[in-house]
Amino acid sequence: MVPAVASGLLCGQPFFEGLSRHDRVFVNDPLLYFLVGRPSVTRHHEMYPGVVTEAAVQAQIIAELEAQQPELIVLFSMFEDVQEPNDSGRSSGIFVLDRYIQSRYTLDRSFGPNYHLMRLER
């Protein structure tokens, strides 16, 4: 997967590694930025429950995606079904970022069941 992401980007070009859903967050995989050797389009490269699940932060991420128009994003779904026995295990009901991604990116290919490479529709 790392070569596929790296080869799909220009040298130094940022990308976004997000989750299959952003209304409920357990953990994401920010190590991917290091492995690919490219920066994140957003300062929210580590996604925390109660932060990225909020409308204002999702709007900020969307603004950063709009400004930089990354060709590729990777959605991580390994822990999609994990539910902590606290507020982070509940949906925030905020799907703004998920809808944005669904409306502008299409699945290019998946790497196993947990990593999904999405390409910007032009």
What would you say this structure looks like, in words?
The chain is of the alpha+beta class. The chain has one domain. Helices cover 29% and strands 18% of the residues. The protein has four helices and four strands, in the order αβααβαββ. The protein has a four-stranded mixed beta sheet.
Strand order of the largest sheet: 1-2-4-3
Radius of gyration: 14 Å
What is the helical fraction, as a range of percent? 25-40%
Count up the domains: 1
Termini Cα gap: 23 Å
Sheet having the most strands: 4 strands, mixed
pLDDT averaged over residues: 94
| Coarse morphology | globular
Structural class: alpha+beta
Strand content: 15-25%
**How many β-strand runs?**
4
Number of H/I helices: 4
H and E string? HEHHEHEE
Residue ranges: pLDDT <50 for 5 or more in a row? Answer: none
